[in-house]
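Hello,

Following up on my earlier ticket. Below are the two sequence lines again, exactly as submitted.
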Amino acid sequence: MTFDVLVEVRLKQGVADPPGATLERALPALGFGGVSGVRVGKAIRMSVDATDQAEAEALVAAMCDRLLANPVIEETVINVAEAVAAQ
Amino acid sequence: MTFDVLVEVRLKQGVADPPGATLERALPALGFGGVSGVRVGKAIRMSVDATDQAEAEALVAAMCDRLLANPVIEETVINVAEAVAAQ
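Thanks for your patience. The regenerated structure is below:
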């Protein structure tokens, strides 16, 4: 079975995020007030073959540990959903 | 009211994605087979003040058009949720 995966890789709290800070300064200048806490992370999408959802989640968690994220400064949120037929 | 926002900014289909291609080549070498269609985008989180969810979504859509994404090569997915009390 094929699963559609979305991994959000984001900086841990307290880790400096210059792109986020730049957006946060730029938004009010464009007329967007009331925005705070802007943080920029990565959104990694992929298709994974696995026998069930639990196996897919375990595979992706292992990928995060080994390649997709730096566990010293980043944390990950994993979303796994069964792929719709055509894919 | 404050809303927690997650904007996924991803490259449109057909736009070259070298970071995604690099991950896709590296994963089998680490023992992760059965992975395809790896695409790397941005996950932007922020807190937005608005009177209701519809206003928050409209605000964020305008931010995407003006600053967060390049509509020529990128598309966005916007998630807005009411912030939990403490924030």
